[in-house]
């Protein structure tokens, strides 16, 4: 563990070559070598060495978190990218059944981490013991960009927690004006009632958040602007036809296949943040994106607004699969008739 902490790749490699099993818990911290490495900066090489030396990507700490969860909670997008490239599933669950995407919505930080998971087919809609989903957590803590990414990748704005509160109710309760504006802008219903028969407007009044209550009250359906484009996904993972699920989600194992053949999906619309907010914010955000120089070319915005797509990503995939099934059935019927 000391060699991992100081990022001594050579020493770690020697120990692994001698037969050291890297899947163990530190008696003091409960961490394993891989989860320790993902919490450090510039740790990509150590992570690769540990994986090649037998470290299980889904090996959990004593508190029940995988390396992906740790990378998200430390906002370490380099470690996150490395783990995903090595074959880690973005849908690994911790001891509470929560995914890295759920943790990302809670802790906030760099929204690029959230987008990386979604770009890698992370499943949206993880539910905790109180019925909260990622969208509720993003609104609870005011993580606007995370909310943008979640909505763009198909998060359900009508989902209700154990109290019947939608994400808009949560905004009203915790006075998260920016998140509420995004939800309303994207078409969230302000008429849904929680299990106390309260609308989001009424919750805002009861909580004393009168300015937000006025925003909800005066919002009109004509102000809604749905997404015109569909999100982009990595070409590293193959989608299966059964139920629209991707194979990585079905294989919750440690030794993920790193040699999956890439499927040539069309490059869909990239970063939602550049087209999800009102026009007055677009110029500033585009300039910031250019200055940041983010590395993944498939996540860089094209700035296109001509696409007519407004369906959620999940609906887009289901439609494609249905068309493929119809085509297969037609071919089968023709061969039988011969």
Automatic annotation (TrEMBL):
Q: Where is the composition biased (Basic and acidic residues)?
A: 318-328
Q: Where is the composition biased (Basic residues)?
A: 329-338
The ANK repeat boundaries are 63-95, 130-162, 163-195
GO MF terms listed in the record are: ionotropic glutamate receptor binding; synaptic receptor adaptor activity
Q: Give the highest taxon in the source lineage.
A: Eukaryota
Q: Which InterPro entries match?
A: Ankyrin_rpt (IPR002110), Ankyrin_rpt-contain_sf (IPR036770), SHANK (IPR051569)
Which PROSITE patterns has this protein been placed in? ANK_REP_REGION (PS50297), ANK_REPEAT (PS50088)
Where are the stretches annotated Disordered? Answer: 235-275, 294-338
Any single Gene Ontology cellular-component annotation: postsynaptic membrane
Q: Which UniProt keywords apply?
A: ANK repeat
- Where is there biased composition of kind Low complexity? 301-314
Tell me the SMART domains matching this sequence. ANK
Which Pfam families does UniProt cross-reference here?
Ank_2
What is the name of this protein?
Uncharacterized protein
């Amino acid at each position: 563990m000391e060699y991992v902490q100081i990022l001594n790749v050579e020493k770690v490699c020697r120990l692994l070559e001698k037969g050291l099993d890297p899947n163990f818990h530190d008696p003091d911290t409960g961490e394993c070598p891989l989860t320790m490495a993902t919490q450090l900066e510039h740790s990509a090489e150590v992570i690769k060495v540990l994986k090649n030396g037998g470290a299980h990507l889904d090996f959990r700490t004593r508190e029940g978190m995988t390396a992906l969860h740790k990378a998200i909670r430390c906002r370490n997008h380099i470690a996150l990218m490395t783990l995903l490239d090595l074959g880690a599933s973005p849908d690994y669950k911790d001891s509470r059944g929560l995914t890295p995407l759920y943790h990302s919505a809670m802790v906030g930080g760099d929204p690029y981490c959230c987008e990386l998971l979604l770009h890698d087919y992370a499943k949206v809609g993880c539910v905790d013991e109180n019925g909260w989903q990622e969208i509720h957590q993003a609104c609870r803590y005011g993580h606007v960009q995370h909310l943008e990414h979640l909505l763009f990748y198909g998060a359900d704005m009508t989902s209700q927690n154990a109290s019947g509160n939608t994400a808009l109710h949560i905004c009203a309760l915790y006075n998260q004006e920016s998140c509420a504006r995004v939800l309303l802008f994207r078409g969230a219903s302000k008429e849904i009632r929680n299990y106390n028969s309260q609308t989001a407007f009424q919750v805002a009044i009861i909580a004393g958040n009168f300015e937000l209550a006025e925003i909800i009250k005066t919002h009109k359906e004509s102000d809604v602007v749905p997404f015109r484009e569909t999100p982009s996904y990595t070409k590293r993972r193959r989608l299966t036809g059964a139920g629209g699920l991707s194979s990585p989600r079905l294989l919750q194992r440690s030794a993920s296949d790193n040699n999956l053949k890439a499927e040539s999906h069309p490059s869909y619309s990239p970063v939602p943040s550049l087209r999800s907010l009102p026009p007055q914010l677009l110029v500033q955000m585009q300039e910031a994106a250019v200055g940041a120089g983010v590395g993944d070319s498939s996540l860089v915005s094209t700035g296109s607004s001509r696409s007519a797509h407004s369906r959620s990503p999940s609906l887009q995939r289901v439609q494609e699969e249905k068309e493929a099934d119809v085509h297969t059935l037609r071919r089968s019927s023709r061969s039988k008739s011969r």
